[in-house]
Amino acid sequence: MVQEPSVKRLALATVELNLKVLIADEHALMREALTNALADLGRPVAVLEADSLQAALAHLAAHPDTALVLVDLQLPDASDGNVLARLRATGSKAPIVIVSAADKRATVLAALAGGAAGFISKRSNSAVLMGALRLVLAGGAYVPSEVLREEMASPRPPERPEVPVATHWRSGRELGLTPRQMDVLVLLVQGKPTKVISRQLNLATGTVKTHTAAIFRALGVANRTEAVFAVSRLGIQLPPAMRDASETGHASSPSAGNLRFLPAAGLATA
């Protein structure tokens, strides 16, 4: 399904928006994680969401002032080879940063050679993510340290980019998570605060915190943003009903200008 463009706003209603970011990823949970991470920039941000290449192209046409594009190579209506080319063909001057789990050296180099301003692996932690975004917004280009070290140590002929394979869904049981911990995980990656999770699941706040710590240990992550990256990377199958709720799009027409208000770190919310 092609998602109609929608806009989220992070910041004071009285502050003029000075950064518009397009996030293109098939998965709503990943878009939400990146949106939440952008709040840590500490500046007014408007987020445009797209779950397909066509929706991303529509956004760029409707919002020529877009300042940054974050895109997954594996969009449902595109191949790795044409995502960058088609986004650049719009004439947008916004730097394009790839955020993808397909992070082999050849894929990274091909994206950078194709004009990407950076490549962030979905294996990255939140500190790397924020550092990369700040570098790109300052006019720089981000190259993963692993790729940079390989290039400096032993340059090799380009490899063939990897071909994405079908996702193998993993259950919570495979990761050692209980059904209740999976319920907590779903709400965590939706960005729900601990008190809301406690109320929604009828659990004590301390119990939710205990479950959260166990989830982070099982996923090998340190925070919620990294947890969402891990869910996407590992192909974790969330409880159906709750996953469907999280995947619900926030539809609006390109010209409607509807805004969903979200908190930004260090900024009041309108």
| Overall tally of domains | 2
Structural class by SSE content: alpha/beta
CATH class category name of the largest domain: Alpha Beta
Rounded Rg: 19 Å
**What is the CATH H-level superfamily of the largest domain?**
Response regulator
Report strand order across the widest sheet: 6-5-4-2-3-1-7
The helix content is 40-55%
Q: What global shape is seen?
A: globular
Number of helices: 11
Question: SSE order in H/E notation?
Answer: EEHEHEHEHEHHHHHHHE
Q: What number is the mean pLDDT?
A: 75
Please provide a brief summary of the model.
This protein is of the alpha/beta class and 270 residues long. It is built from 11 helices and 7 strands.
Explain how this protein is built.
The chain is of the alpha/beta class. The protein folds into two domains: 6-163 and 252-262, Rossmann fold; 173-236, Arc Repressor Mutant, subunit A (Orthogonal Bundle), CATH 1.10.10.10. 41% of the residues lie in helices and 12% in strands. The protein is built from eleven helices and seven strands. It has helices at residues 28-38, 53-62, 80-88, 105-113, 126-137, 145-153, 179-189, 194-201, 205-219, 224-234, 240-246, and strands at residues 6-10, 20-24, 45-50, 68-71, 96-100, 118-121, 259-262. Strands 6-5-4-2-3-1-7 form a seven-stranded mixed beta sheet, sandwiched between helices. Strand 5 (96-100), helix 4 (105-113) and strand 6 (118-121) form a beta-alpha-beta unit. Helix 1 packs antiparallel against helix 10 (224-234), helix 7 crosses helix 9 (205-219) and helix 8 (194-201) packs across helix 9. The longest helix is centred in the last third of the chain and has 15 residues, at 205-219. The chain starts with 5 loop residues before the first strand and ends in an 8-residue tail after the last strand. The relative contact order is 0.18. Mean pLDDT is 75; it is low at 11-16, 155-168 and 241-270.
